[in-house]
Amino acid sequence: MKKFKYLKKIIEILILLGFFIFNLQFLLAQQSCEILSNNFVPPTAFTSGYMQFDGKGDFLRSQNYEPLNLNYNQTDSFTIVTRIKVNVAYQPMRILGKISGAGWLLSYHMFNWGVVSFTISNTTISVYTLNADTNWHTYKVSFSKASSVLVTEVDETVTNTYTNFTYSTTNNNVSFSIGNTGFPATYGWGSYSNYGYWFNGGIDFLKIVRNNIPLVKYDFGEGAGQFVRDSASYFISDRVYPGTLNCGELHMMLGYMPASDTCDPVWISGDLVHNQSGFFSLGSGLSYYCDVQNFVTYLESYSSGLTVWNGKLVNSGLFNRAGGNIIKNIAMWDGSNWLSVGNGLNSEVMCTASYNGELYAGGLFDSAYGFGETRHIARWDGQQWRKLANGTGDLVNVMYEYNGDLIVGGFFMSVDEMYAPKIAKWKGSEWSRMGAGFSGPVYSICSYKGELYAAGNFVYSGATIVNGIAKWDGEEWVPVGDGINGNNSTIFSLYVFQNELWAAGSFTIMNGKVAGNLSKYNGKRWEGVFPGAEGLNCPGNGAYITRMQEYNNSLYVIGMFTKIGGTDANKIARYTGAAWCPVEYGTDLRPKNLTVYNNDLIINGDFYSISGLGFGNIAGYNPEGYVTKPVSKKKSIIEKFSLKQNYPNPFNPATEIKFESFSDGNVNLAVYNSSGQLVAELVNGYMESGIHIVTFNGSNLASGIYFYKLTSVSITDVKKMVLIK
Questions:
Q1: What SS3 state is found at 565?
Q2: Are 248 and 101 in contact (CB under 8 A)?
Q3: 523 and 457 share a domain?
Q4: Could you tell me if residue 121 is inside a domain?
Q5: What would the pLDDT profile of 656-698 be if each residue is shown by its tens digit?
Q6: Is 546 a domain residue?
Q7: CA distance linking residue 515 with residue 511, whole number of Å
Q8: What pTM value is reported for the model?
Q9: Which of 18, 20, 152, 649 is deepest in the core (most CB within 10 A)?
Q10: 5: three-class secondary structure by DSSP
Q11: Given a cut of 80, is residue 13 above it in pLDDT?
Q12: How many C-beta neighbours within 10 Å does residue 667 have?
């Protein structure tokens, strides 16, 4: 019995010890993350609101998307549910739909006096007699082919039942649109339509289900700027290309136009809460401005390459404005301003590098403005662009200096008219091949323990199987284990962290071991990181990582993922060496690259907000929340933007609004009512940095909810206040 008693005691001690160790590890891991609550709150600052259309050209749209044609032969049932209001009574409006000849449409006052109607295959039925009512209503249209019944509802009350209902073809090639319909399924200024009947009103949410499969499930109150978030998660990319499956759910791209021009609806916040952020802007960022036949808009723009050259941050991509100036596809940031690099390059610049004192650029471009042909790669000597012999036969993805040479990888099959599949060496004055090259594109090059590694989306080097990653032995490329498999079988990034070589991208197997798009190598063996990077409802295979960068002794990782290492993280995360942590609320759209400049982490890509703050495809980050930086010998600025809650609140009739501007510049402070109409402009002009207090008097306004919006450079913040009389 004594033996059993001692054994029981030993077991109890071991259990307690194990519990203590587990909790200690948990606490240490949690203490290493900046904001514990980020694991439990959605990674967006926006929680409620709606999209406001002004009736003068505002719209959201997607490309042509076949299931939304609601083809009768393929559709057993469909349901369309939306909450909208119209702002102007008896004005004809095409609110939402997909119609060009055939198709379907939800409209107001288009076919019947003051009636909200639903049209499909040129058959129009009444949903609700709205007349002059401009209040919010929830509309529902549902159809069952089995019973041939179409039912309409308003605010969960049936308004009409149509029996023996059938329809014919709805196929067309126009976009699905909100705000008007009939747009071609293309992007850019050419898709703008002069159709009348623009929607003047608001939309809160939209759900479209076909054959019990959700096609669209958006809550427009969960937005960031002009971009609409998927209400199914707070994590999924705002922009998922139409016609693609994302882990079993169909999503659409909406809100393509990012700028504050006539094509943008306004996002009205009903409840905006934003804590201090470590992210800050680099001027007004990058954009692509277009003015054709007096139609002004902003087209798709993004950043791809990052490097530091001659003390300046070099950012490249696809844009024609940097800090508001005409700068084409490559720009330099000196800490205060964006500067041009000559006259720029004529198409996307995908990568940059500093080599032999000069700045090198590679990408899709084939010429430099003011110089001439460069064929996908060029060098800037500080005065002009120069070509590298006859360049490469196709686009360049990556450049990396190794043993005095510049190693160049990409999609090309030749350099200087010489056969060199996907990878080659620039020796300062001439090109040379590197063995048999690769069977697919190279995305990353890195040296580890003095040896050169290359990775990408390839299987062979000559006749040798290398599966996505290989090592250079001085003559040929040799395998590094069995390589990768699964997902897209692609490595986008190689990086050395804590004396190990990390490989990241889109793969589920590395050297025969399970790896969640991430693995590390100690020179002898690979160790997969699992669960690694995951996407929404698709563990392991619905995500990918694009770049890695060490900063403040942590490894920062970006890509398209919603979790990493089992931790919720919205496309940006960091690894401390012991735990994975989210980085604030993450970003919308697609981050692409990372580097360190002036002790700040720089992130670029295709995005318009990070952590709920607005940025133009590039932002800086410092985890201190704000940093003081010298601007001149006499002055410093605080990289911080702060709009305080008005006091008192509620108020009658006056209240004070306090804000702190992060630098000298133009500031606008305006007040809007709950319909999004401007009721007062309190500040509009140049102000010095510092703390400012403005009094707002609402004596001539009715009781209700109002919003005050502060805009400074590229940053916008909105808060709610209540007037009670």
A1: coil
A2: no
A3: yes
A4: yes
A5: 888 877 667 778 888 988 666 789 999 888 777 777 888 899 9
A6: yes
A7: 9
A8: 0.66
A9: 152
A10: helix
A11: no
A12: 20
